[in-house]
Amino acid sequence: MRRKFNYFYPLLISLLFIFLFYSLLSSSGDQNFERKKGKSDSSILRSRPAVQRKAVASQKYQAIAKKCSSYVDYASVAHIRDTDEATPLNLPFQRPPENCRTFRSSVVDLFLEKFTKLLKDRDLAKLFENTFPNTLDTTVLWHVTARENQKLLNHKRKPLLYRNDVPETFIVTGDIHAEWLRDSAWQLSVYQPFIKRDPRIKELLHGAINTQAQLVMENPFCNAFNPPPYTNVERADSTVDKVRPYPDWRRVFECKYEIDSLASFLTLSRQFYENANPEDRFSFVNLDWLLAVKRILEVLLRESSSTFSEEGAPNEFPYTFQRDTNVASETLPLAGTGNPVNSGTGLVRSAFRPSDDSTIFQFFIPGNAYISVELEALSRILADCIKNEKMPEQYTPEIEELKETSASLSQRIKTGIMEHGVVNHPTFGKVFAYEVDGYGSSVLMDDANIPSLLSLPELGFVSVDNVVYQNTRRMVTTKEGNPYYIAGDHLQGIGGPHIGIHNAWPLGLIVAIRTSDDDQEISDTLSAILHSTGGLGLIHESIQAFKPDGNTFTRPWFAWANSEFAKTILHLAETRPHLIFGKQFLSEKFKLQSFLATLGESQEIS
Question: How buried is 393 (Cβ within 10 angstroms: 0-12 exposed, 13-18 middle, 19+ buried)?
Fold first, then answer.
């Protein structure tokens, strides 16, 4: 017994050791497997969980840093300059150290210095100073000028050698190292008026169009992308979803088909065309851009099909999406096809919303309105292209066909919206629905993300005084009419299902300002935004509306919202300067281009 007893314990200990060893290996392997599978919801990737601002002491701003920290961490702590004066809110200075900024523009710096002096509220001036350059300061993770590209020769294949002669730009959304077509286009929108004055800004935006054109032509159903493989930019793990058509996951970060992503590429192009000097107006029109436009029109035409044929059999589905998730809005029902839509509406399907949530009924009205406007503008740009002497003649037949298709498609969609997207509400009268299916079903709500029902005049679809729009605006800005209007104790505004029913989104407040003609509403909304930064002096993705001071929020680094806020202040400067300017600056009407002309022009490109 004793000898048996002595052998038993060493054997037992050995078995336990082996068991623990393999358990640890298995646990580690499972974790790696989960990561490799990309098993993470868009709600995790796109929107961080709400964070409570910690009581961290403010730090002294350093113009030059020894080491550049992550801007997520940097933006979560208030930074104070020695020259900052005390203000009612004491908002900090949140631009990163000069040597940590991802893009520099002397014109932008001079503009900030001069423009902020016009603002009567010093906290507003500080918030504008932080938000206006945020995309330039923090999200330009890769940019090469045409001259630099000619030396780098990143494109080796003979059919693509022409790409070495143009600039390229990769813009991330903020705290995620990926480029959303929609976010980046709207992030850059606030700088479009500067391209006449600053060659560096012009080259940056030209590069952004070139990069987006490549991404759209290769993966037109996808919404978010990894940095080009020939850059040194660290890439995030792509989501791994069941998507058809199969995307190129080397380039694609996420492949949710969103009609507004395609429209946003057209917006980026259109705004460049509208703001550039005549000699630069068509500089972005090359083979990649034309192919991207062609792919967009192909997708829109394919997504115009109904679920069932006239005989009643299911049609082929041009796009399907499935994700392993316990969040219903992160995947599509019916084996990834989405809920059925009817024929004969003239509308185009969208699998997902601009919040990256799946649509309930795939005729997403704000997205259809947005693409309708951009297609009409596209047809005009293409018509001008044909007249342009520098345009190669071999492109003319293709451009002519694209022009005709975009014009007819735009009109068809607009007619479809007015016939199927307007419904009678028992309280508010005729309103635009958020989504419809063509069978008579509709979703009456609004989400803060653009495009939204609230933003329809901003998109150019209707005038702000349109009767149906005004009815809709009243509906979506009340808790009685919009299930996602968050009437919090400390903040009131439109939210959305992406974060939940406790959070209002500053994007909704920002659009409310730009679509209002009521000075009191504008002033109150502007004040609400100023008081909801959690003392950090930046615009966050969403704010917990039932807690004070904006201290609980999602995404401390959300560049799109910062750009939209800055754009709103420029909008007020031209339309309602008395609300934001000191009295001494009201004698002369403010025009941004005239103001920029007083700054001179930059000659620097490299």
Answer: exposed
Q: What is the pLDDT of residues 558-572, one digit of tens each?
A: 999 999 999 999 999
Neighbours of 500 (CB within 10 A): 16
CA–CA gap between residue 370 and residue 261 (Å, rounded)? 10
The alpha carbon torsion through 336, 338, 341, 343 (nearest 10 deg) reads -30
**What is the DSSP secondary-structure string of 221-278?**
T--EEPPPTTS-PPPPPPP--EEESPP-TTTEEE----HHHHHHHHHHHHHHHHHS-G
| pLDDT tens digits, one per residue of 249-300 | 999 999 999 999 999 999 999 999 999 999 999 999 999 999 999 999 999 9
127 CB contacts (<8 Å, ≥6 apart)? 91, 529, 530, 533, 537, 538, 539, 565
Is residue 450 classed exposed, middle or buried when 0-12, 13-18 and 19+ CB atoms within 10 A define those classes?
Answer: buried
Where b means 16+ CB within 10 Å and e means fewer, 471-480 reads bbbbbbbeee
Phi-psi region of 356 (alpha: psi -120 to 50; beta: other; left: phi over 0): left
**For helices 199-218 and 287-302, angle between their N-to-C axes, nearest 10 degrees:** 50
Q: Which amino acid is at 155?
A: H
Phi/psi for 180 (5° steps) reads -90, 130
Distance of CA 191 to the CA centre of its chain: 15
pLDDT at 234 over 50: yes
User: What is the rounded CA–CA span in Å between residue 328 and residue 317?
Assistant: 20
- Amino acid letter, residue 36: K
Q: Is the pLDDT of residue 46 over 90?
A: no
Whether CATH 1.50.10.10 fits 51-597: yes
Position 39, amino acid: K
At 551 the three-state DSSP class reads: coil
Which pairing describes strands 59-60 and 79-80: parallel, antiparallel, or unpaired?
Answer: parallel
- What is the token pair recorded at 469? 């729009």
β-pairing verdict for 542-544 and 552-554: antiparallel
Q: Is the pLDDT of residue 496 over 60?
A: yes
Extents of the domains making up the chain: 51-597
Mean pLDDT across the chain: 92
The tokens of 464 are what?
């702000």
Query: What is the mean pLDDT of the segment spanning 234-254?
Result: 93
Asked whether the predicted pLDDT for residue 399 surpasses 50, the reply is: yes
Residues 18-31 pLDDT 10s: 555 444 444 333 33
Amino acid at 453: L
Q: What is the spatial distance between Cα 98 and Cα 64, in angstroms, rounded to a whole number? A: 6
Residues 6 or more apart whose Cβ sits within 8 Å of residue 90: 123, 535
